[in-house]
Amino acid sequence: MASCESSIYRHRHFASPIFRDGLMKTYFRRWLAFFAVVSAFLLCWSNPAQADDDRFSAGGYFRIAARPDFQGGKSQLGLWNISGRLLNETTWAALEMRLQLLKASPGTNEVWTSLHAKVEGGSAHGADLLNGSLGDFALTQLYAKAGNVLIKDVVWQVGTLDYYFGDLGLYDMKFAEIFYETIGVSASWSNPYADVLVGIGDSGYLKKSEGYNTIITVGAATRIRPSEHFEFGLGAEFFYEPSVTGSENGPHQTKFDADSGVQYENFARKNVLETYAHQFGTDADMTKFESAYPHPSEADAFSFKVVGYLGFGKLGPLKWNNLFFNFLREHPESYYYETYNNVKKRIYIKEWTDERYQFNIGDEMNFELVKDRFDLTIAGLFGYHFDKDDDVSASEKNRLIGSVVARGQVYITPTVHFLAETSYAQENSLNGNLWRKSPRSVRESNNGIANSMGLEYGDLDSRKTWQGKLGFVLNPGGTGIFARPSLRLLYGVQYSNAHNAFPNSNTESLDLTNEFFGQDTLKKLDECHWHHVISIEAEAWF
């Protein structure tokens, strides 16, 4: 919660003449939206007509860090969590609220109902580029639950339906998750030995955003617990997007004749219109082009996701092992725009994006090797991503991913710990060179543009990354690698065979201008493979 002093400061700021600017009005509206959700719960909680001290509850999570970076980076050691989440994640905060509208007496089959909301985002004042803007926060969960309605011991949920078996803590990844995109209704049943969930809804808004079209989603999951040492789970969801006559947001494909010269390669290069115009032959004002350009054809779209979970532990030094996997077919994209000779066209690409698959598996083992003195957690992941439509371009849709992370924590005292972590990650492109060894490598691939031999972007088909992290941890709550709150002073180092493999203002793309050091210093600093950061950070959940 903000202090009175900071609240006064905000009030004075909004009352100033600057408030008349459109930007400040936008910020103000975002503040109002955020506090409207929180206030609704608090007002209901405080309603004297339904007074009950424990009707409202809240929990959440946050992390924040100061990471001086003297190499021009954006306070992250590496590019993403494939090397472990520690020092690779940025600011995050979440607040999850629950309001019990109707409570059931313990041990009865009485009807009960509750409301839930979750607000989360990745910005804090002074910690990132957005400086705490609420524009980076979202209401990610909003749903109602009701139990013992119609069917005894069944819990109904209406609203957002996100469900997952667990996550890889060292990576902060959820491989076994379904209904993340879905708004609808689910029914769940539980006993000490098993959980069962079924659901149906619509995933159109999250999958397609402003190009919304209905995407019917059905799915189910079950978790079995035969003993305290072993459990497993399996789930699946299926997405169906029907064609809608007359709707430009429905799935379509712009079909080009074999004589047009347009192939998948042109879609990858984003020069479809130019290729079609050159092959067709056009007049100066593009009249012939406009009259001959093909109309899109309607089509249905289908995708799916299968997830699994295996957990076992409480066996000697092994506290617990979590194994997660998923196999999925990505939902096809709808369209994009191209402009050529002042003619702008929407190009539908359903059939160019409907054969993208992923297989991902991750495992995490937690050991207590010396009681109250030394814990060790080891995690690894493997990913195989392939696009059957694309056999010409180097992209993240066609790659192999492998990684291993190990973190040890020594307990000097119950609250003062020493942490050490190491990781190795490798990404292999399946369709040519996707990364660069040096800033000059971009010039070796046709001026930084995908070339005709493979649509490559450099001189490396494999990116290899090693990270090491160590430092001291203050855990007021006691021992445990995942004990929180956690206050940390850490040093991190990274080596990558790829140039400049960490976030900074110059590495958002692989184009010709992305040389980072500039022409004057290229001779002195030809390559940048090492990266160092120091971090003062805090993390907690509550």
How far the N terminus sits from the C terminus, by CA atoms, comes to 14 Å
Major β-sheet annotation: 18 strands, antiparallel, barrel
Total number of β-strand segments?
Answer: 24
> What is the structural class?
mainly beta
Order of helices and strands: HHEEEEEEEEEHEEEHHHEEEEEEEEEEEE
Q: In percent, how much strand structure appears in the residues?
A: 35-45%
Describe the structure.
The chain is mainly beta. The protein has an 18-stranded antiparallel β-barrel. A two-stranded antiparallel ribbon has the order 6-7. The chain has helices spanning 4-15, 22-45, 204-208, 264-269, 272-280, 287-292; strands spanning 56-66, 92-102, 112-121, 137-147, 154-160, 163-164, 177-178, 183-191, 194-202, 216-227, 230-241, 252-253, 297-298, 301-315, 318-329, 335-340, 343-348, 356-370, 374-387, 399-411, 416-429, 462-474, 486-496, 530-541. 11% of the residues lie in helices and 43% in strands. It contains six helices and 24 strands.
